[in-house]
């Protein structure tokens, strides 16, 4: 039964990704779609951390920054292929999460939030201030992945927007597949149980600290890969990717859509990515909107948009 | 050698000796009950034995190994399992998933296999699922397996906790008021289940307020009052002990007055 639900969710997501382009008024929307998918990917990572394991992070943009700058700096300084740089970024993010997660995850509640916040600020400061290496606040250009040229050689001509729409969409699907696999697995159950009761989890043999650390590392890798994809598709990156507002944006997307739900988190990412694109007024007041969304969701839909809607539909069906 | 040896165990909370110098032992297949008025330190004692609290003094030995102050998850690996007086159920997980969490030590594997949903993971999970369904049938919750645990009644949640604790295949099971809030029929069922488990060789350490049940099923009773052991022995001896009658049975009326557990 659980397995069937997983495939239904993935099929819905895949169908949406495939069908949406037919409704795009202009090629520009491929870019918007790609951005939604990348944001969705990092938010799915937060679903694992916040929704499954019940831990909060206000510094996950730090890992996105590491992923993004790995793709900018790896090819420039180490002569790495951008694709390999993405993997290197993910490995660095994972190892860093392992290293800092061990002491940080002993903390609870707002202590954890503050510690992760500190981490995010640290990464963002480093990227801003190490001008010689990172180009400082003005940002740095990112080498092309080269896959599109390869496709062109094979006779398949697509625009940059179309390519990144497809590539990010596939990345999102893979990310969703992994997270849904995890949900209904021994590790996922262990993570979710410590969300319910840490004492009970440990008395059934679950190593609470270890499961928290796993969730933290996995979510850091999600954020890192999303950051890399963002850098690659824009061809340019600034330290804002690691900034505090980006962390807040990620958490708000997760909370809005439904922090326990992979599909919900993607919906949250879609809504908050689209708003400033469609209604340019929102771009100016983005922080205001994020704050208001957070408060309203907490008051009226503490479970998030999608789970609340699903519950209402189910309630009507019975 | 006993299965569980508690020796001189004590803990102090802000100057108050919540438990002081308590010693007793439990043999395989034996049902040992810890009784005493409210606030006597029964749950605190359980928390120290199961690693939830660090004891201030004394030792706990399991199977001859010193396990004093060892983390609960390590104790679970060594065969000690427990339930809670104030329910600790994973509310947002289904009934089946709650019991599956109890199979964690048996179904866990490489995290990569779990992420990729490899056949090896699915085999592990399927085995655990089969066992979990058996346990749910045993506590008569098999029809509720797909429900969210938070939607169950209090008595059902008590049984769910027992099923989850049994999933660990424990050598010793600590039950903290398993029959609290259950009706007469449910109490009798839990009663029968405990006897069945003991007959299968599992040692049972029980905290229970239902005196009829305690007197009926216990092999051995430890009586606590104000954190100290004031008596121990078989049910007949304990129920005749003048100190116990004064401390415990005399306190029963006040206890009934504030029956918040």
Automatic annotation (TrEMBL), chain A:
Signal peptide as annotated in the record: none
Protein keywords: Cell membrane, Membrane, Transmembrane, Transmembrane helix
Main location class: membrane
Membrane topology: Multi-pass membrane protein
Top-level taxon in the UniProt lineage: Bacteria
Pfam families: BPD_transp_2
Record-linked InterPro entries: ABC_transp_permease, LivM-like
Transmembrane segments: 7-24, 30-51, 84-102, 109-127, 163-183, 254-275, 287-306
Intracellular or extracellular location(s): Cell membrane
This protein's name: Branched-chain amino acid ABC transporter permease
TrEMBL record, chain B:
Keyword ATP-binding: yes
UniProt-listed InterPro entries: AAA+_ATPase, ABC_AA/LPS_Transport, ABC_transporter-like_ATP-bd, BCA_ABC_TP_C
GO molecular function, one term: ATP binding
Stored Pfam families: ABC_tran, BCA_ABC_TP_C
PROSITE patterns, A to Z: ABC_TRANSPORTER_2
Keywords, comma-separated and alphabetical: ATP-binding, Nucleotide-binding, Transport
Residue stretches making up the ABC transporter domain: 1-251
Domain of life: Bacteria
Matching PANTHER family: AMINO ACID ABC TRANSPORTER ATP-BINDING PROTEIN (PTHR45772:SF7), CONSERVED COMPONENT OF ABC TRANSPORTER FOR NATURAL AMINO ACIDS-RELATED (PTHR45772)
Record protein name field: ABC transporter ATP-binding protein
Organism: Paracoccus marinaquae
The organism's taxonomic lineage, starting at the top: Bacteria, Pseudomonadati, Pseudomonadota, Alphaproteobacteria, Rhodobacterales
